[in-house]
Specification:
391 residues, alpha/beta, seven-stranded mixed beta sheet, five-stranded mixed beta sheet, 12 strands
Length: 391
């Protein structure tokens, strides 16, 4: 059955939004940096929020707003993963959940493994939890292997845990590379962590956005070890563009880890936004599946279009088409624009990409491009960079 790709909203309408993407830079700059998308809301979400406005439903979030059951249904439909709603607890956003879980499973000064290049807040949340960052970079595909996959450095992670690191903060799927970690790699990571008595906290916010030909493996579903030592934190916010509504889920699959989450302070759960919960229920409902399929189709087209545009206009760029998400990790080192090419591009081409070095030292010479936009906007952005190259 063919799926009709979603159409992004027109630029003049998008510029009326008051979110970070549209208020950080002047109107002459095309914003393709922060992870917001340009599509209309799923109809079920709009209906839920419109109903809340009519009712004045703007109070405190109840103890059980229904999102745990909605997510369990979504996980079963989309991933074939059976989640016990009783082992799901809410909080304000994924990074809040990560911080609180790291506080619960580490002691001050403990080391936590992260795998750069990685989502910039990973560095800050580890420190906010009172721990220290232990960097074990991803293994990059070889220069000659355009179809190669970024991989976890499992021997490096094992060495870090053997030397005393107490937890791993995993990005699954990975941001910014768009890598979907294999079930085998996740199971081996779990085995290593279990052997060393370490916990794994898995940020799975991009999991609803795995592209055709790839299969997402929830960390907790990778193996018995993973279920026993793992914690997943996820949200509808990236796939359904709901970041401002503040609702994330902390998920466990074992009695012991569930007890850890249950013991977190009640204030962690009180940070959940009521509208975030209402929108999340609508997002995870079967009524939004058709919208999500249309989003997949649009992003699948755009991730390939970005490859074609770069090949045509910025042939020195290196870009591996991502397995998941709407973010392209692009190496511009050969252009000779320094460690932070995003600064030159923003200043001279009037296009805002995300700053590569923010993702770790491995991001020098790189930019992250948000292709969750219309093909025309993506084309204009890359053409502007191409014009800068040809000067």
């Amino acid at each position: 059955m063919s799926v009709t790709p979603l159409r992004a909203l027109p630029l003049d309408e998008l510029r009326q939004r008051s979110s970070s993407k549209w208020r950080t830079y002047p109107a002459d700059i095309l914003p393709l940096f922060v992870a917001e998308t340009d599509f209309p809301l799923a109809p079920a979400i709009s209906a839920a929020l419109e109903r809340a406005v009519r009712l004045g439903d703007t109070g405190y979030t109840p103890p059980d707003p229904g999102i745990a059951r909605a997510f369990a249904g979504f996980a079963e439909r989309r991933f074939g993963w059976t989640v016990d709603p009783a082992r799901v607890r809410t909080t304000g956003d994924v990074m809040v959940g990560v911080v609180e879980l790291l506080r619960a499973v580490t002691s001050p000064g403990d080391r936590v493994v992260i795998t750069p290049p990685v989502y910039p807040p990973f560095f800050d949340t580890v420190r906010e939890a009172g721990a220290e960052v232990e960097r074990v970079p991803l293994v990059a595909p070889s220069v000659d292997d355009a179809d190669g996959r970024w991989r976890l450095d499992l021997p490096g992670i094992e060495a870090a845990l053997a030397a005393g690191a107490r937890a791993v903060l995993l990005c699954n799927p990975h941001n910014p590379t768009g890598t979907v970690h294999t079930r085998a790699d996740l199971a081996e990571l779990a085995r290593i962590a279990a052997h060393h008595g370490a916990a794994v906290v898995s940020d799975e916010i991009h999991s609803p956005l795995v592209h055709p030909g790839e299969r997402f493996t929830p960390f907790l579903d990778a193996s018995d070890d993973a279920a026993r030592i793992g914690y997943a934190v996820t949200s509808a916010s990236k796939a359904f563009n709901l970041a401002g509504l503040k609702c994330a889920l902390m998920v466990t699959a074992d009695e012991r880890t569930a007890a850890v989450v249950k013991a977190l302070p009640w204030e962690v759960e009180w940070r959940t936004g009521l509208w975030g919960a209402l929108a999340g229920i609508a997002a995870f409902s079967p009524e939004s599946d058709e919208w999500l399929d249309g989003l997949h189709a649009a992003l699948d087209d755009n991730r390939r279009l970005l490859a074609d545009l770069l090949a045509e206009h910025v042939p020195a760029a290196r870009y591996r088409i991502p397995d998941a998400g709407f973010l392209g990790w692009v190496d511009l080192t050969e252009l000779g624009w320094g460690d932070n090419p995003a600064a030159k591009i923003r200043r001279e081409a009037k296009v805002a990409f995300h700053v590569g070095p923010y993702f770790g030292t491995e991001g020098a010479g790189h930019v992250r491009i948000n292709f969750g936009c219309s093909p025309d906007v993506l084309r204009e952005a890359v053409e502007r960079v191409g014009a800068l190259v040809s000067r």
